[in-house]
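Structural biology now treats backbone shape like a language. To illustrate, our science desk offers a sequence and the tokens encoding its fold:
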Amino acid sequence: MEKKVTPLSWQMDIINNINNVKSASIGNDIILFDDFTNVNTPIFSYPFKFDMLFIVFCTKGTGSGTIDFKPYSLTAPFVTIILPHQILHYEQISDDFTGYCLVVSNHFAPEMLPGIDKRLSMATAITEKPYAQLDPKDMSVVRKYFLMIKKIITMTDNPYRLEMVKHLTQMFFYMAYTYFPKHVETTVQTRQGLLTEEFTKLVRENYRHERETAFYADKLNLTPKYLSQVIKSATGKSASDWIEDSVILEAKALLKSTNMTVQQISNELNFPSQSFFGKYFKRKTGMSPSDYKKM
């Protein structure tokens, strides 16, 4: 019998590896980091599949990377919301990066989210673009939210502080929904841009099962050759590279953020065998899955 798959302990990883950062917490389930400047933890070194709700409010500095395979590059002030089971990879964080970070365990996250799974427009707005550049008015509101959360968490003699944090965070999500869509690009896209957007969406939905360009071309009623030309022209990266990079990012995240064995990850990603998965991974990364897991 295969052992139960569990995420690695993000609480202890953060506590043990982020140094000199002010924090306040309610047990190990809600942690607020203040003056989030000295980021030095494996979570920020590798693609990481989160088992938590993760809200970052950057007041100074820059950050870039990917969230669920979608690239971003932001300059303060901005806010990002990472929902449980999304993959975050910080590729660059500036030395002057400053702000606040709230992490909520997967145990409490469902209580913090205002039925987001039942509100498809809210879920779509946050998952499709889980970050927003803030204007001065929005920045002031978000800052007040974090300061209020901090004040409540530090009220250790208040038996209702968990409930207060929960309801305040629910309010934050409703508020965020009102301004996240404002930052969605409204420029008219070319046909090439629309095809690229449709292709990358299909890849996100199917890469665990489908790794052939022909599958995606068929879904888009195109020939594989034409699809490859469009994607290469629009992104500088071939269609097959987009597919393979998505598979590898997921594999890296599972290797680093769960206790899954290489065999289990191979099965999860629908490879015919562990050996085939190992060769595929090494061809793209230069190392075996086992070696990557040990890094």
Summary: The longest strand covers residues 52-60. The two ends are 27 Å apart (CA to CA).
